[in-house]
Write a structure and sequence with these properties.
The complex is a heterodimer of chains A (339) and B (328). Chain A has twelve helices and 14 strands. Chain A has 339 residues and is of the alpha/beta class. Chain A folds into two domains: 189 residues, Rossmann fold, CATH 3.40.50.970; 126 residues, Rossmann fold. In chain A, the strands form three sheets. A seven-stranded mixed beta sheet of chain A has the order 3-2-4-5-7-6-12, with helices on both faces. Chain A has a five-stranded mixed beta sheet with strand order 9-11-10-13-14, sandwiched between helices. In chain A, strands 1-8 form a two-stranded antiparallel sheet. In chain A, α8 packs across α12 and α9 crosses α10. In chain B, β7, α8 and β8 form a beta-alpha-beta unit. The N and C termini of chain B lie far apart (45 Å). The chains are: A alpha/beta (339), B alpha/beta (328). At the A-B interface, α3 and α11 of A face loops of B. The complex binds thiamine diphosphate. Thiamine diphosphate sits at the interface of chains B and A. Chain A: Keywords: Oxidoreductase, Thiamine pyrophosphate. Chain A: One of its GO terms (molecular function) is oxidoreductase activity. Chain A: Its cofactor is thiamine diphosphate. Chain A: This is Alpha-ketoacid dehydrogenase subunit beta.
Chain lengths: 339, 328
Amino acid sequence: MTNENRKKRKLTIAKAMSEALAQEMRRDKNVFVMGEDVGALGGVFGTTQGLLDEFGKNRVRDTPISETAFIGAAVGAATMGMRPVVELMFVDFFGVCMDAIYNLAAKNAYFSGGHQPAPMVLMTSVGGGYSDAGQHSQCLYGTFAHLPGMKVVIPSNAYDAKGLMVSAIRDNNPVIFMFHKNLQGMGWLGTVKGSIVDVPEDSYTVPLGKAEIVREGEDVTLVGLGATVHQALDAAGELEKDGVSAEVIDLRSLVPLDRETVLNSVKKTGRLVVVDDDYQSYGVSGEIIATVVEQGVDFIKAAPKRVAYPDVPVPFSRPMEQHCLPNASKIRAAAQACF
Amino acid sequence: MKPDASVQKWMYETMVKSRQFEEKTAAVYLEGKQPLFNMANGPIPGEMHLSNGQEPVAVGVCAHLRPEDAVTATHRPHHIAIAKGVNFQAMTDEIFGKKSGLSGGRGGHMHLFDAAVNFVCSGIIAEGMGPAVGVALARQMRDEEGIAVAFIGEGAANQGAFHEAMNLAAVWKLPFVCVIEDNSWGISVAKRDATSVPRNDVRAAGYGIPGEYVEGNDPLKIYEAAGRAIARARAGEGPSLLEVETYRLAGHFMGDAEEYRTAEEKKSLEANDPIPKMRARLIEEAIITAEAADDIGIRMMAEVQEAFGRAASARYPAPEEALEKVFV
Ligand SMILES: Cc1ncc(C[n+]2csc(CCOP(=O)(O)OP(=O)(O)O)c2C)c(N)n1
């Protein structure tokens, strides 16, 4: 980072995102933001705080509740050389506008033989745990990562959020930027403290497609993304008391997926637990395990395990929802079962 | 046609019940969430969208409906659910997430389903349009009694589902009414910034059906306009579009700081509260006495207290019940 002696300051992911947006908007007049309540409200999850004041209504646009229209319009504007950043308030709402996402944004480059890319960012909130029920609590990582043509990133902390956002805006492809509600730093959502970290004021990038080892260990690899990284870290702390040294990997990006970092870790530890708060079947956990089995079966000392959300809609009632969500003790138990 | 005295009394009583329900909900909702407001905590967790102020729409329309008529409502469903006759105890239990709730605690406040009175609601904007049209289609195909009404917000009228469903209902002449609750806000976005038509009833022309706008958040005027639309639907003359001016007295959801609204706007909303207005009118027209009106308040409060008392002490579902009912 540029200034090593600078004063440390801790930011929430929401603040880090809006800072990245502001810096990119100052740098490039083609960058603009649109979505529901991104103006005066600054985004329901704080992603666009302060932008309206600085950049005005022309570049920070409140939209009608017309996702098909404004996400489709982002694709069109992007093909004209603009750099739209659009917000889909909750990922659960993708159903009303998926065509614009996976048939337009994700296929534009391909259909044009690479001549007409759609450089846009779609930022959207994911995750549950606060009893908002089945239409406001999903993660859907696997759904988006499954469909080719769009990059998918999920920060677990404010430092990564800022750097990934800058990379996403500068990328010439559509990027789905999924931010987890429980990490966002909004007062009304209990925020995981570990997501609020020191963030440099200068602009910087975190590369898309590079996982991070957030804790080194020898005996078992715990792979997480977004909020589950923090649960895996908690579990690793507990496992240490059991005499088990756990390595924790933060995927940070699902497309492109950094399979190498995972493989290298399993090569060292021989054991793997994947933690995913998205539905279990056909998702991230299956993809990671398939990778390790395909490319690293010789390293594996025990059957890989997954701690994921069961294949049921997210229930409203707290005991039922908490039963379904991954947590540190489930991860610890899964890791112990590898020995 | 003006509603007769007994219907007017029902309308007033139902508005009061809805208001008492919401006031109690607001109070209980805050329990355990202070000092730092945290949605996950308290006896009623999750988001909470109150409908206080919008009661006239619910009673004005539902006064015409029978149990076999279907209603699809929004993320702001309580006033409509109460007016449609949704099981009150089971609905209260549901918002507490209890096993005895409408769905056993699976749906919560935004997903109240009561098959006995043909009521459903949804947290996705304009999502009720298609299903309501489908109910109307089933009724038409089987030549059965009963119509369908979709309630949506004025913000939802900018959603594709609204336009597509309206067109379908119109071209098939279905027994369907779309009621738009125009409270002028879609969260923080004003209606004027989201659509270039000041009144959505004019959009009815685009589907070749009648449209009507009702001013003043007045339960009687809403009753009369809804009566016309519903009579048309029952007579097989096809769908109508009704937009109704109303107000939400509270924020979009509990916890909303409402910085997008001016203090004057909030003041004027309170001064225009439809419940004291209706009370004064009923007394003036000698439909009820002041004592009878007080009595209604006390009775409704007691019903609400009892429902909340039972809901608070009801059992939570077992955690493993989360895995049930995905398929039947
Ligand atoms: C498809 C979809 N987009 C966005 C949202 C988020 N959202 C919830 S309520 C709301 C505003 C709705 O406004 P309106 O339809 O006027 O109803 P009101 O809340 O005023 O009753 C929005 C944007 C959603 N639930 N579903």
